[in-house]
Design a protein that fits this description.
The complex is a heterodimer. The radius of gyration of chain A is 11 Å and the shape is globular. Helices cover about 0% and strands about 40% of the residues of chain A. The two termini of chain A are about 20 Å apart. Chain A has one domain: Roll (SH3 type barrels). Chain B has two domains: about 100 residues, Rieske [2Fe-2S] iron-sulphur domain (Rieske Iron-sulfur Protein), CATH 2.102.10; about 280 residues, Alpha-Beta Complex (Naphthalene 1,2-dioxygenase Alpha Subunit, Chain A, domain 1). Chain B is an alpha+beta fold. Chain B is globular. In chain B, helix 5 crosses helix 10. Classes of the chains: A mainly beta, B alpha+beta. At the A-B interface, loops of A face loops of B.
Chain lengths: ~70, ~450
């Protein structure tokens, strides 16, 4: 089982990897451990979303990249 | 004389419980769980209620978790600087979306399943929205329930769940004349007032109406505070307040029976000079300056020295010493949660803040000696009113009933409300009768068309 990512500790600017294979850069963290606000930097499934902002659910985040 | 009877059903005749012609009120309205449950629907879901102060949510994203009746609510300033009041309960499974007392956040996220709401109440985050809901969930219909009306009156935030309720201004009527003395700065110059210190919260095992009626006009329980007066906790070391400013003043009970509000107020002579806060030279000079400016800014209205007051149903305040707001949040027929805010002028110097902080918590709240006296009375009165024998005996509210007070010489001050001069009598129960008249109307009226008695001149008084 992959290590569970603790969203509360992640700062703005940190990049994370999602279950959908996308890379996200955190732009705001409410630090509730449930959601982060981020923007796509890589999205192999839909490149048109790169640069767009969205809320990301904790269970969709699998890895911290930096 | 009317006798107290156990209510038969939801449609029980309230007049058998609140008989203001005779001046008796059944203990049932304080201890009966069925009546308490009806209060939540009839009263707290329809009246304007105090929520908090704008200084508690000065920045976008600031929030303060408050209470409306039994319901937890979030007072919040959104990113567009708009003030909102939401039900603090997730629209998915009801979990509280905010379990902090106050703070700043971009979203309120439910810890149960993860639904997330923006500071304007909109549902913005739904886990598995694409995979499980196939993006068909209409998020716009599942935001946090918001109050029907909200009002920022001189920094105090009020709200009602009832879209048919009158505006806050109409709900208050002329009572804002007296509320202003709490919310304005000491000098009356129009500056900013703010909450300082934390909000004190504590549970008192008695019905919420005990303190509400106490603050609306109970002048004659001074005997309860005799030990505090002897200890001299007041800011000049004598008594519990600086009362020299009231010497020579006309004592007035002012009631708004058609609205339920009431206040104890003193009308002092024009040329009255006072001294206060003698325990500290800096504080004394500060208030002397404020008082001088107050007389210039208020003019003849500076003669009014407002005292304990209640805005119907459950917000009470002390506009001068100690300057504070209390809300009596119902928590069952036999319990309520008292919350107390302390106010101060934003530009008050540090020495004044520290002095007042110490005085305020010595006087009010769970650590306050005066409030401890009151709690003893309310606790034991409530407890001793619950038994089947006790319930057969109504409380007495006959003080001053059927008697007119002496004329009030206001010298041109057009003071709103039903004013009773109690200088010679020392006390009366007009204000309490007005409070329960309004309570009775709320408990029986089907809607605001019936509740707005002042629109058709049906507001009675006792």
């Amino acid at each position: 089982m992959a290590e569970v990512v603790n969203l509360i500790t992640l700062e703005v600017g940190v990049k994370v990897f999602t279950t959908a294979g996308a890379t996200i850069e955190i732009i705001e963290n409410p630090k509730d451990g449930v959601w982060i606000f981020g923007k796509y930097t890589i999205n192999p499934n839909d490149p048109s979303l790169v640069g767009t902002e969205e809320m990301f659910f904790a269970q969709d985040i699998t890895e911290v990249l930096n | 004389m009317a006798t107290a009877r156990k209510p038969r059903s939801k449609s029980s005749n309230r007049n058998s419980l609140v008989d203001l012609e005779s001046g008796v009120i059944s203990r049932e309205i304080f201890v009966n769980p069925e009546i308490y449950a009806q209060e939540q629907e009839q009263l707290f879901a329809r009246a304007w209620l105090f929520i908090g102060h704008q200084s508690q949510i000065s920045k976008p994203g600031d929030f303060f978790v408050s209470s409306m009746g039994e319901e937890s609510v979030i007072l919040c300033r959104d990113r567009q600087n708009e003030i909102h009041v939401f039900l603090n309960s997730c629209t998915h499974r009801g979990m509280k979306v905010c379990r902090y007392d106050e703070g700043n956040t971009p979203v309120f996220s439910c810890p149960y399943h993860g639904w997330s709401f923006a500071t304007d109440g909109k549902l913005v985050g739904v886990p598995y929205f694409k995979d499980a809901y196939k993006e068909t969930l209409d998020k716009s219909k599942w935001g946090l329930p918001e109050v029907a009306q909200v009002c920022n009156y001189k920094g105090s935030i009020w709200a009602t769940w009832d879209k048919h309720a009158p505006s806050f201004a109409e709900y208050m009527g002329g009572f804002t004349t007296y509320l202003d003395f709490l919310l304005d700065t000491w000098d009356g110059a129009g500056g900013e007032t703010e909450v300082f210190g934390g909000i004190e919260k504590w549970v008192i095992p008695c019905n919420w109406k005990f303190p509400a009626e106490n603050f609306i006009g109970d002048r004659y329980h001074n005997i309860s505070h005799r030990s505090v007066d002897m200890a001299g906790v007041g800011p000049s070391g004598v008594g519990r307040r600086d009362t020299t400013e009231r010497e020579g003043a006309t004592a007035l009970d002012i009631s708004f029976p058609e609205r339920g509000h009431g206040t104890i107020t003193f009308l002092r002579p024009d040329d009255k000079k006072t001294t206060s806060y003698q325990h500290s030279k800096i504080v004394s000079e500060y208030f002397a300056h404020c008082e001088s400016e107050r007389q210039k800014n208020y003019g003849k209205w500076a003669r009014l020295l407002p005292g304990p007051s209640t805005v119907f149903p459950n917000m009470s305040y002390l506009p001068r010493q100690p300057r504070s707001i209390a809300v009596w949040n119902p928590r069952g027929a036999n319990s309520h949660e008292a919350w107390r805010w302390f106010l101060i002028d934003k530009n008050a110097p540090p020495e004044v803040r520290e002095f007042l902080r110490h005085y305020y918590i010595t006087y009010s709240g769970p650590s306050g000696l005066t409030e401890q006296d009151d709690m003893e009375n309310w606790n034991y009165a409530h407890n001793a009113s619950q038994g089947v024998i006790a319930r057969r005996h109504p409380y007495n509210y006959q003080m001053g009933l059927g008697f007119d007070g002496p004329p009030v010489v206001t010298d041109g001050l057009e003071m709103p409300g039903q004013i009773r001069n109690v200088t010679d009598a020392f006390a009366g129960e007009q204000n309490q009768r007005g409070f329960y008249q309004r309570w009775s109307e709320f408990m029986s009226a089907p809607d605001w068309d019936a509740l707005a008695t002042w629109r058709n001149g049906n507001g009675k008084s006792h």
